[in-house]
Design a protein that fits this description.
The protein has 13 helices and eight strands. The longest helix is centred in the middle third of the chain and has 20 residues, at 162-181. It has two domains: 10-51 and 147-176 and 214-264, 3-Layer(aba) Sandwich (D-Maltodextrin-Binding Protein, domain 2); 55-141, 3-Layer(aba) Sandwich (D-Maltodextrin-Binding Protein, domain 2). Helix 1 (10-19) crosses helix 2 (29-37), helix 5 runs antiparallel to helix 9 and helix 8 crosses helix 9. It is globular, with a radius of gyration of 19 Å. It is an alpha/beta fold. The protein has helices at 10-19, 29-37, 82-93, 106-115, 125-135, 155-160, 162-181, 183-193, 199-209, 224-232, 243-246, 250-257, 260-266; strands spanning 25-28, 43-46, 55-59, 73-76, 99-102, 120-124, 138-141, 149-153. The chain has a five-stranded mixed beta sheet, sandwiched between helices. Strands 1-8-2 form a three-stranded antiparallel beta sheet. Helix content is 47%, strand content 13%. 36% of the residues are buried.
């Protein structure tokens, strides 16, 4: 397994799948739904977590309210990705008119905020804890469409190599189990791969995520109505978009029905 792109924006993650640059991607529901409406091949396999605030508008410590961002610079990944669009909505709902700078990667947003190049930035939860501990930044949950982050592939890959997709999804479920049950393994991995030097920040990140990871990560979209309404402005066909148009739940269904998931968790008690 290789990780050819890390922390890219949602549109690029989806585009990479469609181009064949990678076989699987973890991204947002919005870019997947938009590509489906364009007639492109991409499909959601799992939603690893329940709905929760996983992204935040982080501000310099002297900015204590989002309304203070009027006339200020806010770093975002892209102009059209799910997190970037949601960050704009969050700031606008607070009554502020800001300037948005596409910085492509979260670490660039973090660095720009640390250096004072921007006044606020859209950042994921791991960088929220790092920013609060290191710089005293303030965190404001980003508006949610009710559409959680997802794990996706293409229907073409499913048709050509269903066994591969099944194996990947089994590993996906096993990894969630590992995360929920083995902090001794996971916390050091978080420090290593998310580049968190502060052990306390990694432990807080771990503790935050344990309850939101789902034992059975079946695709689920509680915010489907809001997603349709948002996309219908640009794509009239979005008004009739169904969950089955953007997701394939059969892999998680098979793992659950076979008893694999229950056996995995039952072993914890032995």
């Amino acid at each position: 397994m290789t990780l050819p792109a890390i922390a890219v924006g949602g549109p690029e993650a989806a585009a990479g799948l469609i181009r064949g640059d990678w076989e699987f991607a973890h991204t947002g529901t919005l870019p997947v739904a938009e590509e489906v409406l364009k007639g492109r091949d991409i499909v959601i396999l799992a939603t690893p977590t329940s709905e929760f605030s996983d992204s935040f508008v982080m501000t310099r410590k002297e900015i204590t309210q989002l309304s203070q961002l009027s006339g200020k610079k806010v770093g975002v990944l892209t102009e059209t990705g799910q997190t970037s669009v949601a960050a704009r909505i969050t700031v606008e709902k607070a009554g502020a008119t800001a300037t948005y700078l596409p910085l492509i990667k979260f670490d660039r947003i973090f660095a720009a905020l640390a250096s004072g190049e921007i006044d606020a930035g859209a950042l994921p939860i791991d960088l929220r804890f790092s920013g609060q501990i290191s710089y005293g930044w303030n965190a404001f949950p980003i508006y949610s469409f009710g559409t959680p982050s997802i794990f996706a592939t293409t229907r073409k890959l499913i048709a050509s190599d269903r066994a591969l997709v099944t194996n990947v999804m089994q590993g996906f479920v096993e990894t969630i189990h590992l995360f929920k049950t083995r902090p001794d393994i996971v916390v050091p991995l978080l420090q290593r791969y998310v580049k968190i030097e502060d052990r306390k920040a990694a432990e807080e990140l771990y503790a935050f995520h344990v309850p939101v990871f789902q034992k059975v990560p079946r695709p689920s979209f509680p915010g489907m109505k809001a997603l349709r309404e948002f996309l219908a402005v640009k794509y009239p066909a979005a008004a009739s978009l169904k969950e089955s148009d953007i997701a394939d739940s059969t892999f998680i269904d098979e793992l659950e029905q076979s008893g694999f998931i229950d056996r995995l968790y039952a072993a914890d008690g032995k």
